[in-house]
Automatic annotation (TrEMBL):
<dbReference type="InterPro" id="IPR000888">
    <property type="entry name" value="RmlC-like"/>
</dbReference>
<comment type="similarity">
    <text>Belongs to the dTDP-4-dehydrorhamnose 3,5-epimerase family.</text>
</comment>
<feature type="active site" description="Proton acceptor">
    <location>
        <position position="64"/>
    </location>
</feature>
<protein>
    <recommendedName>
        <fullName>dTDP-4-dehydrorhamnose 3,5-epimerase</fullName>
        <ecNumber>5.1.3.13</ecNumber>
    </recommendedName>
</protein>
<dbReference type="InterPro" id="IPR014710">
    <property type="entry name" value="RmlC-like_jellyroll"/>
</dbReference>
<feature type="active site" description="Proton donor">
    <location>
        <position position="134"/>
    </location>
</feature>
<comment type="subunit">
    <text>Homodimer.</text>
</comment>
<comment type="pathway">
    <text>Carbohydrate biosynthesis; dTDP-L-rhamnose biosynthesis.</text>
</comment>
<dbReference type="GO" id="GO:0008830">
    <property type="term" value="F:dTDP-4-dehydrorhamnose 3,5-epimerase activity"/>
</dbReference>
<comment type="function">
    <text>Catalyzes the epimerization of the C3' and C5'positions of dTDP-6-deoxy-D-xylo-4-hexulose, forming dTDP-6-deoxy-L-lyxo-4-hexulose.</text>
</comment>
<feature type="site" description="Participates in a stacking interaction with the thymidine ring of dTDP-4-oxo-6-deoxyglucose">
    <location>
        <position position="140"/>
    </location>
</feature>
<keyword id="KW-0413">Isomerase</keyword>
<dbReference type="GO" id="GO:0019305">
    <property type="term" value="P:dTDP-rhamnose biosynthetic process"/>
</dbReference>
<dbReference type="GO" id="GO:0000271">
    <property type="term" value="P:polysaccharide biosynthetic process"/>
</dbReference>
<dbReference type="InterPro" id="IPR011051">
    <property type="entry name" value="RmlC_Cupin_sf"/>
</dbReference>
<dbReference type="GO" id="GO:0005829">
    <property type="term" value="C:cytosol"/>
</dbReference>
<dbReference type="Pfam" id="PF00908">
    <property type="entry name" value="dTDP_sugar_isom"/>
</dbReference>
Length: 191
């Protein structure tokens, strides 16, 4: 499988560009290949595929993660539309703790973001009717579901909202700021 892999500012977060083979019919692409992704440093066993539709441009979902013992790594791509996709480092002891990095993902280009375990994940839709699909390497565990406010001033993500209010869920509006997040669990940086 042909793909390029770019390390982002937090180098465990990867931007992957699978090769698209275009012809008169359209294109073909491998969107996941266990061997090629393992060689690229993504040696997860993905166990669940998720998909969401956000109707409005300026919809923000996040910042979400599952705490131990049910953490999840995520491999995110866009099926329709475009997003700014973001990962926030929550690994105690990481030089990037509390920092974010991210990339624009579009259906047209087919880029993917790999968000490792120990990171919160969120995105903002850049177009209406945006569909996002992502693989996760741990099953949904509602008891371990956790999140942080998308507009946490300490994380300070410049969401592309053009001055408009974000469309968010009631649940996401009640999430804590990182500085107030109380959990007996911590993520460690892998050795
Ligand atoms: C995440 C998830 C939710 N659900 C259910 C719970 C709830 O009733 C409904 C909607 O859930 P949410 O409001 O949490 O959906 P959403 O806000 O889209 O949550 C997602 O946001 C992005 C940013 C992520 O990174 C994902 O891991 C996930 O947290 O779907 C599942 O059944 N399985 C799952 O894996």
């Amino acid at each position: 499988m042909a793909l390029t892999v770019e390390k982002l500012a937090i180098p465990d977060v990867l931007l992957i560009r699978p090769k698209k083979f275009g012809d008169a019919r359209g294109y073909f692409a491998e969107t996941y290949n266990a061997r090629a992704y393992c060689e690229a440093g993504i040696d997860c066993v993905f166990v669940q595929d998720n998909q969401s539709l956000s109707v409005e441009k300026g919809t923000i979902r996040g910042l979400h993660f599952q705490v131990p013992p049910e953490p999840q790594a995520k491999l995110v791509r866009v099926l329709r539309g475009a997003i700014l996709d973001v990962a926030v480092d929550l690994r105690r002891g990481s030089p990037h703790y509390g920092q974010w990095c991210g990339a624009t993902l579009t259906a047209e280009e087919g880029e993917q973001l790999f968000v490792p375990r120990g990171f919160a994940h969120g995105f903002c839709t850049l177009m209406p009717e945006t569909e996002v699909a992502y693989k996760v390497d741990g099953f949904y565990a509602p008891g371990c579901d956790a999140g942080l406010r998308y507009d946490d001033p300490d994380i300070n993500i410049p969401w592309p909202l053009d001055g408009k209010a974000a469309m968010i869920s009631d649940k996401d509006g009640k999430l804590p700021f990182l500085r107030d997040f109380k959990s007996p669990f911590t993520f460690e940086v892998p050795a």
